[in-house]
Amino acid sequence: MNSSVSSTARLLGAGLRALLVLTVICGVIYPLAVTGIAQALFNDKANGSEVKDKSGQVVGSSLIGQTYNLPKSDPNDAEEAAKPDLKWFQPRPSNGLGSNSVNTRYSLILSGATNRSADNGAVNGKCTEEEGTLCAQVISAKNAVITDNSTATYQVKPEDVPADAVTSSGSGLDPDISPEYAKIQIHRVAEQNELDVKQVEKLVADHTTGRTLGFMGEPRVNVLALNIALKALTTKG
Fold first, then answer.
1. Strand, helix or coil for residue 155
2. pLDDT (tens digit, 9 = 90+) per residue, 22-48?
3. Which of 5, 59, 98, 127 is the most exposed place for a label (fewest CB within 10 A)?
């Protein structure tokens, strides 16, 4: 009996010591080491790739898209459709599936694409405007892009509207748009902000990023960074 109790006590003691050692290593030393390395070598990425405006205030993340809409006439009306603020460059359509109460400009709890097939709403290979289908959503978005971005001196052609202007990304929170989508917004942004078109064209060119390593991905424009630069231009002087 004494031998059995002694053996059990030794096993319990060994287990407790192992628990203590592993807790210290895995629960304290390892997290502190990883956090320290991340802060020392990748400070910006480790802190969420935050983007600051000219005043130094954090206005978002370069990795997460956000909307640029006009305030609702009734903030409590969930049924009121959001209208884009046309003085800003607009992002891709967002199909974030959730919302949060911390910052309503982001859909952070859940996100996702439409989860509809490319021919959803098509009949005999042609898109229809059947309510609730992907085809109807794309047609509506395309018409809005043409209407919103056509000015007295510039008319958007239907064939010039790129896919990213009328469809969401896989996450629904893409921070980037194609140079083609940015291009068709230039005249509208210039008109809304009383700027010269050449000034806005230069902004887009300056904020266009090429393919990663020259061959991976597609050229892109980060909408948040572009709008920060636009705000700085419009408030200059």
1. coil
2. 999 999 999 999 999 999 898 888 888
3. 5
CB 224 within 8 A of CB 62: yes
> Any idea what DSSP says for residue 131?
T
The whole domain housing 104 covers: 51-234
0.70 cut: is pTM over it? yes
Which of 95, 65, 116 has the alpha carbon at shortest distance from 224?
65
Torsion of CA 140, 70, 75, 107, to 10 degrees: 70
C-alpha dist (Å) from residue 21 to 8, 18, 26, 60, 64: 20, 5, 8, 40, 39
pLDDT tens profile 145-197 = 999 999 999 999 999 999 999 988 877 788 999 999 999 999 999 999 999 99
Distance separating alpha carbons of residues 188 and 45, to the nearest angstrom: 34
The sign of the CA dihedral 36, 37, 40, 43 is negative
Residues 174 and 223 in one domain: yes
> Does residue 38 sit in the same domain as residue 119?
no
pLDDT for position 129: 81
- Counting other chains too, the contacts that 104-113 makes at CB distance below 8 Å and 24 or more residues apart are 105/60, 105/66, 105/67, 106/60, 106/64, 106/66, 106/173, 107/172, 107/173, 108/64, 111/171, 111/172, 111/173, 112/170, 112/171, 112/172, 113/168, 113/169, 113/170, 113/171, 113/172
Length of the chain: 237
Our count of domains for the chain comes to: 2
Would you call 203 helix, strand, or coil by DSSP? Answer: helix
Are 59 and 170 found together in one domain?
yes
Same-domain pairing of 200 and 100? yes
